[in-house]
Amino acid sequence: MHSYKDYWNKIIGDDTKERAMEEIVCSALEKLKMHCPDLFYRTLYDLHCVAYGPHFDEALAKLAVSKMQNTDGTNGEHWTYEQTNQLAEQHNIKHKADWYYVLNMVYSDYGAAFSGDTGTLVKIAKAYMCDPDAPSGKVLDLWVAQMRAKERQ
């Protein structure tokens, strides 16, 4: 048998065969999830990083935010993606999906403690994202670690 890369190189450009290979690989990944979840999630993380870098994309950020349980008793986003984009522009934030997630996470976890003081929450979110000791993918990496830990409970 050839390597996966050999098969992939053979079918590139043939949409029908690419879709068939995609189905085979996706099916194998679902089986891998059941039998070796650590390898499954590491593979998904690596695929995500190829597509988006070590950062949230809009869809994943919205999914993550939708599951937040806020200290004020609400669930999900406090600020919309569009609202956080405006703040990102004002504060020179490059990774807008990360910013959307972090700003909503800070509100979710600390909003009640700061009485919803947006200015303070923005400062906390920016400090969290601009941590000089942290790697570029800090926001996504910590979220992934939290989700994996939660899954193991």
UniProtKB/TrEMBL annotation:
- Note one Pfam family from the annotation: DUF7841
Any idea where the DUF7841 domain is?
48-138
Listed InterPro entries? DUF7841
Q: What is this protein called?
A: DUF7841 domain-containing protein
